[in-house]
Write a structure and sequence with these properties.
Number of strands: 5
Shape: globular
Distance between the termini: 32 Å
Low-confidence stretches: 14-26
Mean pLDDT: 84
């Protein structure tokens, strides 16, 4: 159940950028920077409980899965508390592909639990990136998912 919910959340988190919200991420910049900005943009929106903005960073398929942005926010709050509220984050070097990329983020939740959150991002036709899926792993990560060294 958690994996299914994580996949839905990941799709929602990854593909919510739309309209003007994505314009800043579409400027010419290395994909690693654009990918990080998309994730940070969504995390900032979640921290402010800005449901429409948070959902805007997800792909259209995820956005369309919710009747209202508040439903998306409720899903994140209940199913992904480490994404909704965290005390620290650390980005690892992403694995960048032409159409899809993987970004691992180490998050510490408000209770001190450590999570490795895998964001799957999809490149859009306009060149921008949107979140297509999120999966959270408690404690130690799956070794094959992590690059060798963290990037702060």
């Amino acid at each position: 159940m958690r994996i299914i919910g994580a996949t839905v959340l990941a799709w929602c988190l990854a593909f919510g950028a739309g309209g003007g919200s994505r314009l800043w991420a579409q400027t010419v910049m290395p994909p690693e920077v654009a990918i990080r900005q998309v994730i940070e943009g969504q995390l900032d929106a979640l921290a402010q409980d800005d449901a429409p903005k948070a959902l805007s960073f997800a792909i259209p398929e995820i956005r369309n899965a919710f009747d209202t942005p508040l439903q998306f926010l409720a899903l994140v709050e209940s199913g992904y508390p480490m994404v909704y509220r965290h005390t620290s984050i650390r980005f690892f070097a992403p694995r960048v592909g032409y159409r899809m990329s993987l970004q691992i983020v180490r998050m510490t939740d408000v209770e001190g639990g450590v999570w490795f959150v895998a964001y799957r991002l999809l490149r859009q036709r306009d060149g921008g990136w949107l979140i297509g899926g999120v999966t959270a792993y408690p404690g130690e990560p799956v070794p094959d998912l992590l690059p060798p060294s963290p990037v702060s």
